[in-house]
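check this:
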Amino acid sequence: MKILVTGAKGMLGQDLCPILEDEGFEVIETDVNNMDFTKEDDVSFKIEEIMPDYIVHLGAYTNVDKAEEEKEKAFKINYEGTVNIVNACKKHDITLIYISTDYVFDGTKKEKYLPNDKPNPLNVYGESKLKGEEEVKKCDKYYITRTSWLYGHHGKNFVETMISLAEKEELKVVEDQEGCPTWTVELARGIVKIIKEEKPYGIYHVCGSGETSWYGFAKEIFKLCNLKVNLKPCKTEEFPRPAKRPKYSVMENNNICRDWKEALKDYIDLRCE
């Protein structure tokens, strides 16, 4: 079975592609150099050359704050690029797996978000990913996999940022935003599970089980790394950022992924080898 992956050189792609190969799939890795998915002709040529059974669309504009000033670019990549992928999938009857985000929600709910809850993004990044979701739904065969607070060994992420700041005299981290930390490997395994179990088409939340705040996340990182840090909780208002974040974006994942603490321990253990 052939699986074409966009954004294969990104943080998630570098974990997903070898995991797919280990599961016996033939993986075709693409990035901007061999298929710019914002160009319709590029997509048409590559898809007709490969004729994959699945496309896993990881490629995206992901700089949440920068998107506020680069709205056109964010929509060109996250929406218009997705239109090109969707059109190819519809034309050739290909199953599409689209990676989305918890930032499609506004954070006003008091309990875990379900896949069918109504989105209402607070920022440009969330808006652009939601537009992509709406386009994906035009496919006959699709999976929308929303994830959150992603970290992995192959890219800049919250875990590595915290560890790099551990020696600061005092470190303040926001405690009034709650979500689900997700290791790229867990997300990759969740995608494999969806494919191999042939789950019904639709929307899935593929994120770490459980919930925490950014402060709680940082606290667990330092605990697992045996680092003594002068860590202090603070409010979002103390660190204003260009893009608004939902205060509560915890998603119900129906046990597709493990508890976030278990996954984080494995991540830390691997980086220390």
Q: What stands out?
A: The chain has one domain: 2-157+180-209+252-258. The first helix runs from residue 13 to 22.
